[in-house]
Amino acid sequence: MAYFAGLDIGGSTIKTVLVDNAGQKAGALVEVPSDVKKGYEATFTQLESALDQLCAAIGIDRYEVEGIGLDVPAPSSNGAIWGRANLADDWVGVNIREAFSKRVKIPVYMTNDCNAAAVGEYAARKSYCGPLLFLAPGTGLGGGFVLPGGKPFDGANGLALEIGHVSVPFLETDGKMPQCSCGLEGCLEAWVSLVALRRRVGCELQKEEWKSHPLNDDALTIEQKAFQLRDYAEKGDVFALKIFERQARILGYALAGYARIFDPGLIVLGGGLSEMQFRDQYLTWVKASFEKNGWPMFSVSPMDPKKVTTRIEWAIAGDSAAALGMAAVARDLFQ
Fold it and tell me: Residue 129 and residue 310: Cα distance in Å, rounded?
């Protein structure tokens, strides 16, 4: 029996799993603190600790791990980090894949965290074998694309699928395009993200119709107001639902464009949105906008009116999606 590890580096925790050569999960998920802010060498120590815990839990030695899939929360190309993102400065320009492989004496594959989560969602769907487009709205908006067979599409420089930074033609109430955290204007992330919710809440609360809304309490910061928005929406609050509906319809518009480029067959939405109590209503808004702004053939096949050509679903792999995805890639590459 051979084993393959998936190591998912996050800003605060590292999630890790093992799978066997049949693709079955071996043992439980192991989490350790992430030391990315202290540099890559400190993180390597944490990765080794997690790897040893994984092996000890099922009674094997580290040499029985034949391959590792590693993901990092930063842009990378062929194992080298291109930008620091939430990492320490010393990561940039270093071939992390080669350095870690040399340290543990195990072959390593590396990609970014959103690609890894996309592969995890693919691996969780045993009956699906077509391409998969993944979007994860959170503080920002990340994405990944999986080719048929389960291989993530990284692009020539590991920079593919920066989905959140494609412009969409929507304007704020002042007639201007919103500023994105990347420095550009009008990006999808500036509409579909936690940062975007903060801006939208601030804009809407300035309107006379929401003057008496509880979130107009000056004692609350804009961060607190945005954080509470989901709770209000889950209680059926009109103000909160209006903001989420606009976000969902802009997301559906963008997905229609992505379908014309990728023809994914399956679009998976993850991140915090997948945990909302009103997520069924949210998905209804997304799908309605997708159908309104997309070509009919990307919704229903002209050959079979009963066949849905592009499904949009919520993520199902959970917090371990990226780690499982990397373990699956390692198994495919190194078995």
Answer: 14
**What are the tokens at 248?**
């969902």
| Of residues 203, 244, 82, 54, the one with CA closest to residue 154 | 82
Q: Which residues contact 182 (CB under 8 A, 6 or more apart)?
A: 165, 189
Percent residues over pLDDT 70 in the chain: 100
Which pair of structure tokens corresponds to residue 198? 């903060």
Question: Domains of the chain, with CATH numbers?
Answer: 3-124+319-334 (3.30.420.40), 132-315 (3.30.420.40)
Q: 332-335 long-range CB contacts below 8 Å, 24 or more apart? A: 332/150, 332/151, 333/67, 333/69, 333/107, 333/109, 334/4, 334/66, 334/67, 334/107, 334/109, 335/2, 335/4, 335/21, 335/66, 335/67
Closest CA to 15 of 102, 128, 117: 117
In whole angstroms, give the CA distance from residue 251 to residue 228: 21
How far is Cα 148 from Cα 90, in angstroms, rounded to an integer?
A: 35
Instruction: Quote the CA–CA distance of 22 and 256 in Å, as a whole number.
Output: 36
Residue 91 has which token pair? 């990561």
List pLDDT tens digits, range 236-260.
999 999 999 999 999 999 999 999 9
